[in-house]
């Protein structure tokens, strides 16, 4: 006892008062203490006599571990359980953490007893808890609530519960039994306690700390029950069950037996009343709101049909939610966030078909108050800087509630959906005075580099605002148009003024405000006019199309087209299409920006506005420019005339956009984010068969190709340069005109000539390291990468004759520039792009040439990096990135063996079709990609080091590559040269224990695959068979002596079974040695029985087939849960 208390004092002492050795010795004392066998009497003695809380906690923790590992040897369970309950109730001065640990021991004992068949144990405990809470004594009520909390946690899910020595299926079975038999009783008990406590709180007793403490514990218990992950009635595969069980925030999905609780009673009203009583006490308000949020997700078998759902929703609204929505605007922002989350969940789980069943006045009131809450939150924006994040989250949740309502407006016959005030208010809130309410202080805030840009940060908000805007286009679109036209006009005037005289500080502030207005106007307009979703075809929103059709009788098509071309007559705007008019206002901003750039006024322009403008143009063009008319049931004739296919106006707009993006790339190269956005917008614009083909006749595309050929884009950032070349390749691929071959000549010829002129120059070997030459090399490499990234089956025959020779010439550059990591990295990216984009389309002969280039490049890299020593600080990180790229290159190479497309049919022009012939019988045999990958791995292995493997992504990629080769071609692994094979197996042994659980799992999979192949192919005595033998002991020790999670234990079991199949006699010998090594006879006997239960002691070795593997898996889980723990006890 004295030793434990002294050690506790040392551990808890300030660092300056004890030495490191003293602290380590104290830690060792407690580690040894935790391994004590049969410590029950010892723990009782410590709990009774020690007055040091930390020592009491260690005794409680040891008691917990002993109960788990020695459960089957415990004789008098009820005596120990009664002792613990008595101790808890008689020690009001016990520290919280000591009490919670002892409560956990009781919960574990109750769970194990119930699993073993004691059907009354839980009822007995619940009866005791009821008495404790009803006693009125604060200490006893705390103990009772802690017991319920521990019981719920233990039964809740195998992913959240303590490891109590039970198999996973037993955990699930115990949980199912508990939720069927006892969970409802606990919830009813919580409701009863909350009802009594709420009455006390309403009577003014909330100021009493004991009442608050009890109420909080009951609320937390109710939240636990409402967050319970109810099991599915259907049988699901283990992995799916594990996925559902591991949900952190499951919805409320009780079974039909809960109908009397949630459907027949007014539970929402009850919790709303509780909230009204406690909302001023944050520690009580938060769990109450959490309960309400869970109640808002009620679904599943408990809901009989739409009538039940409508009744439940009506109780929610009439039971106090409507009143709360009216009062919430005067309460703290945290309360507004909680209510907004409730509303967002209600809208998701009780959509318009349910809402429409309620009385119309009730629905109208709900919508009005929802609108009022949204407007209130919008008005708060910028006024609570210290709570801005919370405000934005609350606004997002309240806006989310509108999404189902606006998507199902027909259910309400267009009468009930409100929300008309939100859009103009949101727009006004982001405009500067006098039109808006944004404060000038917001315009001058510094934007941190790590902050997301507004287009990403507010994407979800703006999507809903756009939806609301489209709901009232007849009022919202003119508002947007007037703001856009006014701000663009004012910007033009200010820039013209700046050409004549310098702007004053006041003018500078006005310019900042104007740029902020334009930035937000562009984002709101972009989300109003278009909806873009990844993976879905982008279409003109139906509301926009209907509005344009509705305006068509009053629209003059010719006046609209004149306005589009910039030749509109003043005053004619009133008879133009409103969508075209708004688009023209944005196009005018493009003209103003381009004019300012050409007049050297870029310092007065905002790169953020320019980036938002590019974002808008990309989004707009994907939706409106040259649309596929077959996707629409009806089309606005004015929109077709202005932006449609085979129209002069459509081609003019395409050329206009190309010109705008060209000017950005040409004149704004110093802004990397902007030029990258412009290049990606160019890819998006041309990555459409029709737009790409029409672009062939656009002068601005020809100008882009000319500037690229002349090297005028050399100053662009690497990613922007790649995207630019990719866009130009895409345009050439889509070009169906007679001039297509001339286009390719203008694009590819200068690139080839520049490359050859540079590397074949007589002075290149002497001047290659000069900054000027390095810059040229990097420019060519980035351009080549972009060009290769544009390769498709359709343009392969055009690009391959250029790319393959250049790849061969790149190999010496890797060695020449081995001391210049940017050049090496750029070269690797070219090879990666070539393998990723081209390999699956290549013939056998061309594939072999690409393999040869890749292997020669890796040899060149390895030659200069093996054993390389440098004092450069970033050298290790650069090498890590290079090897990671090479590993990913090898992984991409493997795809050739299972992804191979047939020879493509290429359309050369009208009436001209080229079909690439299949390989001839005499053609050179196809080299296997796995051979290339293994050979490449052999080249790179000497460079790999433990230090490099400490980079998580490189480590993971390496082991994934090795295991993938093993899974596809285990025979090739077995045929590796001795030195490579030994290095490989050494790295597997390292991966089992030195890195992350994910890497360990991959290594175990590798052992399973290789062992299965060795056994099935009867390779006993081979190199692979001999190399696998040491892993039998390694994996067995992992399983028995190391803490593993459930998934890793299963993977380890598969690997162990495979190894046992290969080394059955050695496993039996290992088992005998392990049993004999146990100093305690009882432990040795227990281990022997557990090994016997595995079912592998027969004279016949097991076979790695499915039936025996599944049987072993069941026995293995029992074996692990039974044995793990007692082997490491003193």
How would you characterize this protein structure?
This protein is mainly α and 1130 residues long. Among the domains are: 251-419; 473-644, no CATH class; 661-737; 967-1128, no CATH class. The chain has 55 helices and two strands. It has a two-stranded antiparallel ribbon with strand order 1-2. A hairpin with a 2-residue loop joins strand 1 and strand 2 (912-915). The radius of gyration is 36 Å and the shape is globular. The relative contact order is 0.03.
Descriptive tags:
single chain, 1130 residues, mainly alpha, two-stranded antiparallel sheet, 70% helix, 1% strand, cytoplasm
Helix content: 55-70%
Low-confidence runs (pLDDT<50, min 5 residues)?
901-925
Shape field: globular
**Tally of helical runs:** 55
Which sheet architecture does the biggest sheet show?
2 strands, antiparallel
Sheet with the most strands: spatial strand order: 1-2
| Portion in beta strands | under 5%
Distance between the termini: 18 Å
Mean pLDDT: 86
Class per helix and strand makeup:
mainly alpha
Give the tally of β-strands: 2
Q: Write down the Rg.
A: 36 Å
Topology diagram in text:
Blueprint (H helix, E strand, L loop, with lengths): L1 H11 L7 H15 L5 H10 L3 H17 L7 H14 L5 H20 L5 H14 L3 H19 L11 H14 L1 H20 L6 H18 L11 H8 L13 H4 L4 H12 L3 H14 L10 H22 L5 H17 L2 H4 L4 H21 L7 H13 L1 H6 L14 H8 L10 H4 L10 H4 L1 H13 L1 H28 L4 H25 L12 H10 L5 H8 L13 H21 L8 H18 L12 H7 L4 H20 L4 H15 L2 H7 L3 H11 L8 H17 L5 H20 L4 H4 L3 H19 L6 H21 L4 H18 L5 H22 L9 H20 L10 E5 L2 E4 L13 H12 L5 H4 L2 H17 L1 H5 L3 H17 L2 H20 L6 H19 L4 H17 L1 H13 L4 H13 L12 H18 L7
Antiparallel strand pairs: 1-2
Helix pairs in contact: 1-2, 3-4, 4-6, 5-6, 6-8, 7-8, 8-11, 10-11, 10-14, 11-15, 14-15, 14-16, 15-17, 16-19, 17-20, 19-20, 19-22, 20-25, 22-25, 25-27, 26-27, 26-30, 27-31, 30-33, 31-34, 32-33, 33-34, 33-36, 34-37, 35-37, 36-38, 37-38, 37-40, 38-40, 38-41, 40-42, 41-42, 41-43, 42-44, 43-45, ...
